[in-house]
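Pasting as-is:
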Amino acid sequence: MSDTFTKGMARNIYFGGSVFFFLIFLALTYHTEKTFPERSNQAQLTESVIRGKGVWERNNCIGCHTLLGEGAYFAPELGNVVNRRGGEEAFKPFLQAWMKMQPLGVPGRRAMPQFHLSEQEVDDIAEFLKWSSKINTNGWPPNKEG
C-alpha cells in the first residue's frame, strides 16, 4: 500500500461510504414499513376519534398541553391521561365533569379556560385521547404525570 493518500483513494472512500450508508438507509426504511402495521392501531380509527382530533385542533389544546411529548409544557401531558383518570370506562364521565367545572379558580394553580363544548364534542375528545393512549410510545412519557 502506498504511503500517500491520493485523490483517487479519497474519492473511492467517499463514494463507497455513500453507497454503504444509502443501502443501510434503504434497509431501515424497508424494516420500518414492514413492522409499522404491527405496531399501529389504525384499525381503531373511528369517526368519533377523527371528530375529537378536530375539536382538539380547533381549540388549540396543544397550545397548553403536550400529547406524547409534543406541544406546550404549560398543562399536563394528555397521552396517558386515560390511564391516570380511571381507565376507559371511567374516563368519559370524568372528562365531562372536568370540562364543565372549568376554570377551577384555585389560587396559585394554572387555569384552564371554559370552552363551552357540547357533550358530543367532549365525548369526541375523550375518544381521541383514548385512541392516543393506545399508541405504543416505548415508555414515553417517563413518569406518570408526563
